[in-house]
Design goal:
Blueprint: H1 3-13, E1 15-25, E2 30-42, H2 45-54, E3 67-77, E4 82-97, E5 100-107, E6 117-124, E7 129-135, E8 139-149, E9 152-161, E10 172-182
Antiparallel strand pairs: 1-2, 1-10, 2-3, 3-4, 4-5, 5-6, 6-7, 7-8, 8-9, 9-10
């Protein structure tokens, strides 16, 4: 894979974004809309080292080659609920095969559970889709960001009830869709 495509995806994501999302809570048949404002900045070398340390992940060199973001956001739902959060996230590629790059997705604070978390990512260099799968305590979250052009992203979020070990994903608890535009 041309590393340029992966690096360009991250370069294009830096900046200020506005997102309009719809969430479908399937367990209680409710629909919620939200508006989110994101500030996305590249991680500094110190922030990268902190993400590695927080996750007890072996140090990797050179840190400059690892891609990630400092993500700050503010969300307000149509019910008036507000969330502010700031976190650091980083991607550590492990394998490359047939136009897909896969590896570890590290955060110093996860969305569903406020703690450091190591998850899995898969990047499709043809469609420019970044797929992130996180195994939380109660749910498995599959989050997709597709960069359709440098100033437009499509988001899809699926949260499954976490099945017993070795069982397939079956019960969808939440489906989210969003359109994100760079400002």
């Amino acid at each position: 894979m041309n590393d340029f495509i992966f690096e360009q995806f991250f370069a294009d994501c830096v900046g200020n974004w506005v997102s309009e999302r719809t969430y479908h809570y399937l367990t209680y048949q409710e629909v919620e809309r939200s508006h989110t404002e994101f500030q996305v900045q590249p991680l500094t070398k110190e922030q990268k080292q902190k993400v590695l340390t927080d996750n007890a992940y072996n140090s990797l060199e050179p840190l400059e080659k690892l891609l990630g973001f400092n993500l700050g956001f503010y969300t307000i739902s149509d019910k008036g609920e507000e969330v502010r959060q700031n976190l650091n996230l980083m991607f550590v590629p492990k394998t490359e095969r047939n136009g897909f790059l896969e590896g570890d997705y590290l955060r110093d604070r996860a969305y569903e559970e406020a703690r450091p978390m190591i998850s899995h990512f898969r990047f499709n260099c043809y469609s420019k889709e970044l797929l992130m799968t996180t195994n939380y305590t109660r749910v498995i979250s599959i989050d997709s960001i597709t960069l359709t052009k440098p100033d437009l992203r499509i988001r899809k979020i699926l949260n499954y009830q976490r099945p017993p070990q070795g069982e397939p994903l079956e019960t969808i608890l939440l489906v989210g869709f969003g359109v994100e535009q760079k400002q």
